[in-house]
Amino acid sequence: MRVLLTDRFCDRAKSLGTQTDYFDENVSGLALRVSGQGVKTWTLHFGPASKRARVTLGRYPSTSLASARALALDAKTAIADGRDPRGGTDAMTVSDLVASYVEKHTSTLRSADEIKRRLYRNIVPVIGNVKLTELHRRDATRVVDKIAKRNAPTEAMRSFEDLRAMLRWAVSRGDLDHSPIEGMRKPPGSKPRERVLTDDEIRILWNRLPEALARSPDCQRIIKLCLVTGQRVGEVAGMTKSELDLQHRVWRLPGARTKNGHPHSVPLSALAIELIGSGDSEQVFPNAEAEGTLPGAAVARTISRARERFGIAQWSAHDLRRTALTGMAKLGVVPIVLGHIANHRTTTKAGMTLSVYVQHAYEKEKREALELWADRLQGIIAGGAEVMTIRGER
Q1: Most buried by CB count within 10 Å: which residue of 112, 123, 335, 361?
Q2: 99-125 tens-digit pLDDT
Q3: Cα dihedral sign for 73, 64, 103, 136?
Q4: Of 211, 216, 206, residue with least CA distance to 287
């Protein structure tokens, strides 16, 4: 459809179907493409009718009508000079997009390292050479199927999510008109784990750590602290001295370091403080291979490699957290306190009334529960201990 494009028309333009191209009467070939979802993209159509080509110039309104016309004229000049104006976008491959995405977007995300690892391990080797303009749903299926052959359903699900997020980012920047995999169902991940270590397994694991991980004393301490505090391995591994208030025996995690983005405080038992120690570094568990703290993923890999040395059935770092919380529940700790220990907002802020009117942080109850669990844990490790429960209901 050919119209005299104006700012007012562009602002109000709607698609007449799946997508509609509104061609500008002032600059031949320039069109405002409006998708059925209302996304507006500037494109320039050029070349003979038998071999029509198109280049994306940007998104409206971030790219204004005046800017789009200027870009279109620049592109037409390039065409007149014998140059292909698509050099910046239509020639882009998935590998090019991954590099741009990692540099300009994922570096700000808390899980940047894991996203980068999955992109370069699972996506680039399979479809990295595919041009974005030729990307198809079957390419996403190729990625997922290859991971599925490794019997890694969670990795397949997360890699699909990474690909989908990256393509949505490309659409938002104008590198793509639309994501070809939008609307596809993500592959199912693995079933939620239910593994809880028994008392005997806890005792065997704790006492065998010095032998099983003789070269990784920091990993030994991290594993023990996960079991003592009930916190996530990544949060424990990333612990810094500035987060610790040892005078008041509290570990305060900033929102930037928690899974749900909310600050979290963890009362520290005497056993936890003993495991934390008193090193000189700001990082409680410094990374020997790079600046900063030891990544939680590195601890998980260490556990996986040493699996046969522990003398118990297969377990993961997250099973330690589940074991600790289950152990506290057996001691009589009520769910609302467990929710605060775990920093689960769905439990601690279950409804509008609760979140607005109940501002109690349960610090006293959390300390009682964690100290009770530490006492019970020391008894398990020693091979005895009576099960004591918290008195009364809260």
Answers
A1: 123
A2: 889 988 887 776 788 899 999 999 999
A3: negative
A4: 216
Prior bond of 295 cis (ω within 30°): no
Residue type, 236: V
HSE-CB at 120 with a 13 A cutoff on CA atoms is 10
Provide the Cα torsion 301, 307, 313, 316; round to 10°: -10
Q: Could you tell me if 25 and 4 are in contact, meaning their C-beta atoms sit under 8 angstroms apart?
A: yes
8 A C-beta contact, residue 89 and residue 63:
no
Phi, psi of 65 (to 5 degrees): -60, -45
Is residue 251 within 8 A of residue 243, CB to CB? The reply is: yes
Strand partners, 58: 42
Domains and CATH numbers, the chain: 2-86 (3.30.160.390), 94-173 (1.10.150), 199-382 (1.10.443.10)
Task: Give the Cα separation of 179 and 50 in Å (integer).
Answer: 26
Looking up tokens 């201990």 gives: 385
pTM above 0.70, yes or no: no
Instruction: Name the token pair of 171.
Output: 């659409």
Q: Are 65 and 52 in contact (CB under 8 A)?
A: no
Picking from 175, 193, 71, the residue whose alpha carbon sits closest to that of residue 131 is 175
Q: What is the pLDDT of residues 171-201, one digit of tens each?
A: 888 778 789 999 899 888 756 678 899 999 9
Cα 7 to the chain's mean position, in Å?
Answer: 39
Q: Could you tell me the two tokens for 252?
A: 């305060």
CB-count burial class (<10 Å; 0-12, 13-18, 19+) for 260: exposed
